[in-house]
Design a protein that fits this description.
Shape: globular
Helix content: under 10%
Distance between the termini: 30 Å
Number of strands: 44
Largest sheet: 25 strands, antiparallel
Strand content: over 45%
């Protein structure tokens, strides 16, 4: 059956199923607390306070809402959280995530942590090729996602002054489960999810969930690069005065890592028109290819190995954890959360170091008068007679294969907390909290990057060989070099470091019927130790062991493991936060907060900021964020509004692998975030808008950009999800958008704003059985999230990354 036939069958089922009124009644009788103002906030706070009475900006997304967003990755869910700018164009992982104008100077989520059940997935949100979302998946195990922006995240978590996004698991409080299957209608993807939980007896319950998927993904890679799954489980034992819970998770997945690619730009820097290069669709193609799947090279011990590029982002993660909470005598509570996680895997993906006309690149490799030929593919061995007409675009891509072996990204975390409550005269309660956080993050990885030559073509590009004017082959089956000489052979590296963190913290809060005041402090100390090694050139290294030295083998980048550099430094800093909330009524409250938090720098200091004795300067070790926020919360039976004004000042020291640049800047941002929910009868509207006015206040290394807007920071980002339910039927759309932003800090090339529409429709076939269809990027728009170039080059082609094009899925889910 064709994909179009599948779609027509799905739509026909939706139309033909008879309707009954019971489902409409369920929709109308949904929770009146639309923004969950009465929900206890558990993320980044002392706990025990509802959202209405807390002095933090916090949002929640229930598991039943996630499918409405039609997400193709975990990071796409975050775009529906106010204040969060999630550049979710990288596939199932490797997203850049910013909050309230705090910068994404290099990649990842430096000032934001991703948590599972109250503990960080990774201690540092911007580990190179180890972004936390690579090791995190959304599935049926989630009860809700809770996100705090700024505020007390500075004092109730380490290294996350910008906020915390917490995935909170179901725990089997109610008996039941579900199983679902999802297929791609216009792309190759099949996924199965399940979950089940139940009380075993009055004091014991469990929950287990997982998924498995296999497919090519929404971009044409030429192979099934998205393949793998996850299983999660927990069991809870309740006692008269508390509970004990055990957790387990195992993730073993492959996901294609999408990096920048060829994008056409016409017009001017200030008013550009972006589109697809001839022969390469910016939304549905990728440099990945069946003809560029397995390559021979070296590993971290300089031994021969074969790399399978289909490994992509390859997380292998196993974690076990425990949590307990007990109420002791005289108002004392003790809570402890513990988890140890083993993380390993790969990150392999092609990056375009240069996109230029074919003859220019050929001459740069083999000298003037060089010729080109296909190294493989259907035309393998054939000479390219007209390079200027190659694929209708005349382009080649000098490709650096980002080939990273993740040996050990393991993390141990423990958070112990004591809370004492005092009931004073009248309606006043004083809460004291004292806690101790301990973590150990390992960063052990090897970078062994090589250079290849690839045609710019969608749907299985071929590798290209170069022959010099004398007839000598100077490449080897598309391999230009063992190393990346175009970048000065920067990126054959080994990291083997450990980061120990200890953080005692304390808070005091005073609660009355109307007024809540809280203050908290945290003292982080850390110790970094280990080694790192760079590269040396080895001459006449027979990598493939065929007895013949090819041109790429004449000078090979190898790891200088015999001469590692030492890492040996420590840091310490204070964080603090002060907030107050006043409830004018049960439906209206206002709050204000000031906070200061720090973020210790980790692996991105290596290869440039670490002294010969392993030390680093005090200013490089930690970056600080100061924040002020003032907000108001209001609700009626069918309306919920949460509005917050914010201001932030951020220090940033960082390193970016793709540009080989260090950063030393100070940023300032201010703005407003608005969250709104409205329901009337069968209509439901949920939306958020964030306005940010950000600037580079200081740049130690490049004063020319001071006063400019930080790269990729739009003035306005928004998310709207209207839906309508009638009887068994629900239809809706999730609209995500951004205004324009600058590609780089130089503020020359503008990345145009865009609006992405994700549509969904579902019907309750019978009670418990739901058939749904959703479309991601329904109108197939190109939306750039990043560009390597800061201005339009002469050939009108930039290296950029767009959101994926249209993809449509159908799902059948049975809940019991």
């Amino acid at each position: 059956m064709s994909n179009m036939s599948k779609l027509l069958c799905g739509v026909s089922l939706v139309i033909l199923v008879p309707a009954t009124s019971s489902y409409a009644e369920d929709a109308e009788n949904s929770d009146a607390d639309l923004l969950l103002m009465d929900e206890i906030v558990v993320t980044g706070t002392a706990g025990g306070t509802t959202k209405l009475h807390s002095s933090v900006s916090v949002s929640s997304i229930g598991t039943e809402r996630i499918s409405d967003f039609a997400p193709r990755s975990t990071a796409e869910i975050f775009r529906n959280i106010p204040g969060i700018r999630s550049e979710s164009s990288g596939g199932e992982g490797n997203a850049n995530i910013a909050v309230r104008g705090l910068p994404v100077a290099s990649g990842g989520a430096k000032f934001l942590q991703l948590h599972e059940d109250g503990l960080p997935v990774m201690e540092f949100g911007d580990i190179a090729f180890g972004n936390a979302d690579i090791f995190l998946r959304a599935d049926y195990s989630i009860d809700r996602i809770e996100a705090i922006r700024g505020g007390s995240a500075s004092t109730f978590a380490s290294n996350s002054p910008g906020g915390v996004i917490n995935f909170i698991s179901k725990t089997g409080e109610e008996s039941g489960g579900s199983i679902g299957a999802t297929i791609g209608l216009d792309f190759n993807s099949t996924r199965v999810d399940f979950e089940y939980g139940t009380p075993i007896n009055d004091t014991l319950r469990f929950h287990v969930a997982g998924f498995y998927r296999d497919g090519e993904g929404p971009r044409r890679a030429g192979f099934n690069g998205n393949s793998g799954g996850q299983i999660k489980a927990n069991i809870t034992k309740e006692f008269e005065n508390g509970y004990v819970r055990l957790y387990f998770k195992h993730l073993n997945d492959h996901a294609i890592g999408i990096l920048p690619m060829a994008v056409s730009v016409t017009g001017t820097d200030s008013d550009p028109n972006v589109g697809s290069v001839v022969g390469f669709d910016a939304g549905s193609d990728t440099p990945h290819s069946v003809f560029f799947q397995k390559v021979l090279g070296l590993d971290g011990d300089n031994n021969r190995r074969t790399t399978d590029i289909s490994d992509g982002m390859r997380p292998v993660s196993t974690s076990v954890g425990a949590e307990f909470s007990f109420d002791l005598d005289e108002g004392l509570n003790i809570t402890n959360k513990f988890r140890v996680t083993s993380n390993s895997g790969r990150f392999v993906s092609p990056f375009p170091a240069e996109i230029a006309d074919a003859q220019t690149i050929a001459d740069s490799i083999g000298g003037a008068g060089s010729t080109l030929s296909y190294a493989n593919g259907p035309d393998g061995g054939s000479v390219i007679r007209n390079p200027a007409g190659l694929n209708g675009n005349g382009l080649l891509m000098r490709t650096h294969l980002f080939n990273v072996e993740i040996n050990d990204f393991g993390i141990f975390t423990n958070d112990l907390r004591l809370k004492k409550s005092f009931d004073m005269d009248g309606d006043t309660t004083v809460n004291l909290v004292a806690g101790y956080y301990k973590s150990r993050q390992t960063i052990d990885m090897d970078w062994v990057w090589d250079t290849f030559l690839l045609e710019v073509k969608g749907d299985n590009a071929a590798l290209i060989d170069v022959t010099d004017a004398s007839g000598n082959l100077v490449t080897d089956n598309g391999l230009v070099a063992f190393g990346v000489p175009f970048w000065g052979n920067c990126c054959t590296r080994s990291y083997d470091t450990t980061y120990d963190i200890d953080a005692p913290y304390a808070s005091v809060s005073i609660e009355t019927d109307k007024l809540n005041i809280d203050a908290s402090i945290r003292y982080d100390t850390g110790d970094a130790f280990g080694t790192f090694a760079g590269s040396v050139q080895s001459l006449n290294f027979d990598v493939n062991q065929d007895g013949v030295i090819s041109v790429p083998e004449q000078s090979v980048s190898v790891l200088d493991n015999a001469n590692p550099s030492v890492v040996d430094y420590d840091w310490s800093y204070w964080s603090y936060s002060l907030g107050a909330n006043y409830a004018f009524s049960d439906d209206l409250a206002a709050f204000a907060r000031y906070s200061r938090g720090g973020r210790a720098n980790a692996d991105r200091l290596l290869f440039g900021r670490v002294n010969a004795d392993g030390s680093v300067s005090e200013e490089d070790a930690v970056d600080f964020v100061e924040q002020i926020e003032v907000g108001v919360k209001y609700r009626t039976d069918n309306l919920g509004v949460f509005a917050t004004f914010f201001y932030a000042k951020t220090e940033e020291q960082n390193f970016e692998a793709t540009s080989q640049k260090f950063f030393d800047k100070v940023f300032k941002s201010k703005g407003v975030e608005l969250e709104l929910v409205y329901q009337i009868e069968g209509f439901d509207f949920r939306g958020s808008v964030t306005y940010t006015d950000a600037e580079i206040d200081k740049d130690v290394l490049n004063a020319a950009v001071e006063g400019n807007t930080p790269r990729r920071q739009a003035d306005l980002i928004y998310s709207f999800t209207p839906s309508y339910t009638y009887d068994r039927f629900t239809v809706g759309a999730n609209v995500i958008g951004t205004t324009s932003s600058f590609a780089q800090d130089s503020n020359q090339l503008v990345m145009p704003g865009y609006t992405q529409v994700n549509a969904f429709a579902y019907v309750e076939v019978v009670e418990g059985l739901r058939l749904s269809v959703n479309a991601n990027n329904l109108f197939d728009v190109i939306g750039l999230t990043e560009s390597e170039e800061g201005s339009i080059p002469a050939n009108g082609v930039i290296r950029a990354r767009s959101i994926a094009g249209r993809s449509i899925t159908a799902s059948l889910k049975y809940s019991f």
